[in-house]
Design brief:
3 helices; alpha+beta; Trna Endonuclease, Chain: A, domain 1; about 30% strand; about 40% helix; 4-stranded mixed beta sheet
């Protein structure tokens, strides 16, 4: 399996290519679809809008959260099309990693 650093490098390269081609200001959903397409072209397995369940006291909420993209079952990508990141964005990703059953090991935020 491809190592996380190589995946992250491929993601950053793809995101930069997309940013140069499309520029800022589009909806996150547009960047999500385009980035998924670009990563698949590069040979990655990409899961889009993957449900992340919460398990509490025997109760399972199957789709409490959704990860924008999961690449090669190793790297989670949460896309943000914002002027400035807020502390809640990092907390959101930390929660996704904590709750995710496949134990993803990288956090990557793309600002467009």
């Amino acid at each position: 399996m491809i190592q996380e650093n190589a995946i992250a490098q491929s993601v950053v390269d793809a995101a930069y290519k997309i940013h140069v081609a499309l520029g800022p200001g589009l909806l996150e959903s547009v960047y999500e679809r385009v980035l998924a397409h670009e990563l698949v072209k590069r040979g990655h397995r990409v899961a889009v809008q993957t449900p992340i369940p919460i398990v509490y006291d025997g109760m399972v909420l199957d789709d409490a959260f959704r990860a924008d993209l999961i690449v090669d079952e190793r790297v989670i990508i949460e896309l943000k099309s914002v002027e400035q990141l807020q502390p809640v964005h990092k907390k959101q990703l930390t929660t996704y990693l904590k709750l995710n059953a496949i134990n993803l090991s990288k956090i990557l935020i793309i600002i467009t």
